[in-house]
Amino acid sequence: MRRVNGTTLILAALIATLGALAFPIWSYADRSGTGQADLNAGTVATQWGPLSATDRDFLVKVRLAGLWEIPAGQQAMERAPTQAIRNAGDHLVVGHTDLDQRVRSVAAKLGVELPNQPNPQQQGWLNEMSAASGKDYEDKFANLLRDSHGKVFALIAQVRHTTRNSLVRELATDANQTVLDHITMLENTGDVDFDGIANEAAGSASVSPSGPPPPNGQVPPAPAPAQPTGSPDATSRPSAEPTDDPGRTVNTDRPAPAS
Q1: Span 192-219, average pLDDT
Q2: Segment 104-113, tens digit of pLDDT
Q3: 60 Cβ contact partners less than 8 Å away, ≥ 6 residues apart
Q4: Higher pLDDT residue, 246 or 42?
Q5: Which residues share a beta bridge with 51?
Q6: Least C-beta-crowded within 10 Å: which of 103, 105, 112, 136?
């Protein structure tokens, strides 16, 4: 009798342990405050797929970008002291006018309200540039806009990766091309402070970088090329190819947005 009771107790303990281990797995997604719960709570159904709070925030940010970068670009075209800055301004005006048309079309279909004025921070950037002149103006234009584009680039990648809404996914693809083009044009001015960008990012980083050790002055062994075996009949071309222009250029030629 004691042997049976002991076995029963052991089995009961094992079941309780397995239950404790399994509970977080099946319950985590629905617990209040978790990312999964936030996703479900902020998501609404549409004919193009679920529309999350992150998706809606992305639409607002695309709209806000145009509201301050179009006037910034126009100002650069009219008063910048160098052709490189004027060229960057030209791309800002054309790119964000196009992207604004696209985001307004998507927002109308999805029922998302968009702002009509830049936010206070963006208006402050416009005021800074308006008050500057000469080299100071060039530096402010290139770095305020390059820093802004670099930060929104990460959001575009996140949305393009995670959205379940086909309209938002298409807009993220368009925004990716536009923002990369603008980053490229701003860097082509030669005025971007890459040390400042790197230091700012390092100041907000929470994870230590990892990777191979720093160079020690010796030539490392050459890695073998990554290539297919045999000779597959591939016909596509690399998406990024060098050009004869200074810096690099990004192909943003794409069909007009559907009405």
Answers
A1: 85
A2: 999 999 999 9
A3: 112, 114, 115
A4: 42
A5: 44
A6: 136
Displacement of CA 25 from its chain's centroid (Å): 30
- Token match 């069909």: residue? 255
Which residue reads 């998507």 in tokens? 106
Identify the bridge partners of residue 188 per DSSP, sorted by sequence position.
Answer: none
The one-letter amino acid code at 83 reads: Q
- How far the first Cα of the chain sits from its last, in Å, is 80
SS3 label, residue 51: strand
Amino acid at 172: A
pTM, entire model: 0.77
Q: Which helix (H) or strand (E) holds 155?
A: helix 134-162
Residue pair 103/171 in contact (Cβ under 8 Å)? The answer is: yes
Q: What's residue 22's pLDDT?
A: 44
pLDDT, position 184 = 94
- Distance (Å, whole) CA 145 – CA 96: 13
Question: How many beta carbons lie within 10 A of that of residue 87, not counting itself?
Answer: 17
Strand, coil or helix: 44: strand
Q: Which of 22, 118, 120, 16 has its CA nearest to residue 70?
A: 118
- Written as six digits, the tokens of 237 are 């071309």
Among 205, 198, 71, which Cα is nearest to 146's? Answer: 198
What percentage of the chain carries pLDDT values higher than 70? 77
Residues 6+ apart with CB under 8 A from 172: 58, 156, 159, 160, 163
Of the candidates 60, 127, 73, which has an alpha carbon nearest to the alpha carbon of residue 100?
Answer: 60
